[in-house]
Write a structure and sequence with these properties.
The mean pLDDT is about 90. The radius of gyration is 16 Å and the shape is globular. It has helices spanning about 20-25, 45-50, 65-75, 95-105, 105-110, 125-145, 160-165, 175-185, and strands spanning about 5-10, 35-40, 55-60, 80-85, 110-120, 155-160, 190-200. A seven-stranded mixed sheet has the order 3-2-1-4-6-5-7, sandwiched between helices. It is an alpha/beta fold. The chain contains eight helices and seven strands.
């Protein structure tokens, strides 16, 4: 049976970036089954923009901080797979298809969270800066801690895995919530697959 996928986007005052992010979702070769934008007390037009896309479900989270917005979004998902990106992320057209294909393999769905690389679309030489970003954010961290980290701009995990790790994640707002999630998943015996060429723009 084909697995379903929800994309979760935490957002706080992201009116400058959110439309391009949602347009990149609308342009996917295979559309996600659900898109959740978590409005984390925005005072601009973030919520208005989100609601203008018919495929978006808006969730509100009053506790300030990306970890609370992420948790609210993940908790609200209804799909087999949770995809997590940021409001300034721009997805390649095959992102959903590639994530779903990865999780079609049984052992991946049981054991792995999934993450990919990125590039900065507001500076020159995106291929080069993407390669550098991959070395700094993923290779060096793997050398230091012994496993790949998760990157909140470009990651996915099974919903069942989220409910296992959910009681363990930290809710401090002074740490990187994506790295914290990776640490707790590793401690629980899960693995993280990193695909450098699954790059998103940020």
């Amino acid at each position: 049976m084909k697995k379903t996928l929800t994309i979760v986007i935490p957002a706080f005052n992201e009116e400058r970036h959110l439309r391009a992010c949602l347009d990149s979702i609308a342009a996917q070769t295979e559309l996600p089954d659900e898109v959740i934008v978590v409005d984390n007390n925005s005072t601009d037009d973030t919520a208005k923009i989100a609601k203008s896309y018919p495929f978006v479900r808006l969730v509100r989270e009053s506790r300030q901080g990306i970890v609370f917005a992420r948790n609210a979004g993940f908790d609200a998902t209804t799909s087999d797979i949770i995809g997590r990106i940021d409001a300034d992320t721009r997805l390649p057209k095959n992102w959903v298809a590639r994530v779903k294909r990865f999780y079609e393999e049984g052992k991946h769905f049981e054991k792995y969270a999934y993450t990919g690389g990125g590039y900065f679309y507001n500076i020159r030489l995106p291929h080069l800066n993407g390669w550098v970003q991959g070395q700094l954010a993923f290779r060096i961290n793997r050398f230091i801690v012994g496993y790949y980290i998760l990157w909140g701009s470009n990651m996915a995990l099974p919903q069942s895995m989220w409910w296992v790790v959910r009681p363990h994640v930290c809710t401090r707002t002074d740490i990187h919530e994506d790295m914290d999630l990776a640490i707790h998943l590793h401690d629980l015996g899960y693995r993280i697959a990193y695909k450098e060429n699954l790059r998103v723009g940020v």
